[in-house]
Amino acid sequence: MQTAKQPIVQLEGVAKSYGGAVALAQLDLTVYAGEFFTLLGPSGSGKTTTLRLIAGFERPDTGRIMLDGEDVANRPPFERAVNTVFQDYALFPHLTLIENVAYGLRAKKMPKAQAHEEAEKALAAVQLADYGGRKPTQLSGGQRQRVALARAMVNKPRVLLLDEPLGALDLKLRHRMQIELKRLQHETGITFIYVTHDQDEALSMSDRIAVFSKGRIEQIGTAFDLYERPASVFVADFVGSSNLLGGDTLLRPEKIQLLPAGSTAPEGFEAGEGILREATYLGAVTRYQVALADGTLLHVMESNTRPVGERLRLAAGDTVLAAWPRDAARKIGN
């Protein structure tokens, strides 16, 4: 028998303004225990304000913030069973890694030997078992990020809040850390609430995602829900690349095939002839822009999986036929 999901963080009617500017407008949100839950949206959409309210760094103007069924809206951060990891890591440069990770435990009056033992376990969990005697300045950006995670997790918080923690890393290291974060979350069972503006990061890591826009949540769902069944034009446009046909019909670029001019579209396909405006080779995929006769500009993404000799040789100015399955174009909100 499947166990019912247990809410761990609930925001009920939460609103927050700064000097008359609305940051959050009557927000309702539930996060379940053990979830990797992401707050996704552009800058100024309200996602970081939401995280800071959960952490206790801000107080709501109205509404309740429930943690394990208790309203903590007016409690300071140190009275909440949450920890926060920031983009700048906030490590103490004069302390060793063991001392950095053990700092919170020592502040709670844990004996030094026990605190260092717990810190060693936490460093081992993030694959830095042999680095305890080093200083943060002796580490790479990815290693410092893992120390910050270890320091947050050693306190065994019910909820770990992560505010754009990978934003300062290069792309390759960022991808590695995404895998590492998901592994740590799965192994520890700690609820992660993660803030990012990076849609790919959100889609690849999250159990569920809340998409924010102008202080409101546009949609909450799995990566599949948001990508395949967006509830609004904003979600369709923000989550992944999109073509909006007629203003309210979504057609994803990877659903479109390009055929030589004069070809006949397969049965069950819609098609339109157009002029290729741009072709950009990106390694695993090639990205195209096609201007149809009616003025529609289609974004097309084709995988480069076929042998080189079997691929279409296309250049800007070529006439092509763009074709897609009829059921690939879906009304937004349906």
UniProtKB/TrEMBL annotation:
<protein>
    <submittedName>
        <fullName>Putative spermidine/putrescine transport system ATP-binding protein</fullName>
    </submittedName>
</protein>
<dbReference type="GO" id="GO:0005524">
    <property type="term" value="F:ATP binding"/>
</dbReference>
<dbReference type="InterPro" id="IPR003439">
    <property type="entry name" value="ABC_transporter-like_ATP-bd"/>
</dbReference>
<dbReference type="InterPro" id="IPR017871">
    <property type="entry name" value="ABC_transporter-like_CS"/>
</dbReference>
<keyword id="KW-0067">ATP-binding</keyword>
<dbReference type="InterPro" id="IPR013611">
    <property type="entry name" value="Transp-assoc_OB_typ2"/>
</dbReference>
<dbReference type="InterPro" id="IPR003593">
    <property type="entry name" value="AAA+_ATPase"/>
</dbReference>
<keyword id="KW-0547">Nucleotide-binding</keyword>
<dbReference type="GO" id="GO:0015847">
    <property type="term" value="P:putrescine transport"/>
</dbReference>
<dbReference type="GO" id="GO:0043190">
    <property type="term" value="C:ATP-binding cassette (ABC) transporter complex"/>
</dbReference>
<dbReference type="InterPro" id="IPR008995">
    <property type="entry name" value="Mo/tungstate-bd_C_term_dom"/>
</dbReference>
<dbReference type="InterPro" id="IPR027417">
    <property type="entry name" value="P-loop_NTPase"/>
</dbReference>
<dbReference type="InterPro" id="IPR050093">
    <property type="entry name" value="ABC_SmlMolc_Importer"/>
</dbReference>
<feature type="domain" description="ABC transporter">
    <location>
        <begin position="9"/>
        <end position="239"/>
    </location>
</feature>
<dbReference type="GO" id="GO:0022857">
    <property type="term" value="F:transmembrane transporter activity"/>
</dbReference>
<keyword id="KW-0813">Transport</keyword>
<dbReference type="Pfam" id="PF08402">
    <property type="entry name" value="TOBE_2"/>
</dbReference>
<dbReference type="Pfam" id="PF00005">
    <property type="entry name" value="ABC_tran"/>
</dbReference>
<dbReference type="GO" id="GO:0016887">
    <property type="term" value="F:ATP hydrolysis activity"/>
</dbReference>
